[in-house]
Write a structure and sequence with these properties.
The chain is mainly alpha-helical. The chain has helices spanning 10-14, 18-25, 34-50; strands spanning 4-5, 30-31. It has a two-stranded parallel ribbon with strand order 1-2. The radius of gyration is 11 Å and the shape is globular.
């Protein structure tokens, strides 16, 4: 499954750093709303804190 970023939030997604965007896209996520994007970002932060 490939990651998907809905047109409604593409501007927000594109404002992120290239490394962060790549990290998100590698997760094969479906980003249909800003809440989906926030949830993925929170997961990334939690994983970073656990390291």
């Amino acid at each position: 499954m490939a990651s998907y970023v809905a047109p409604e939030i593409r501007d927000k997604f594109e404002s992120l750093s290239i490394n962060l965007k790549n990290c998100i896209l590698e997760r094969d996520v479906q980003l249909n709303s800003i809440h989906d994007l926030i949830n993925v970002l929170e997961d990334i932060v939690k994983e970073g804190e656990a390291e």
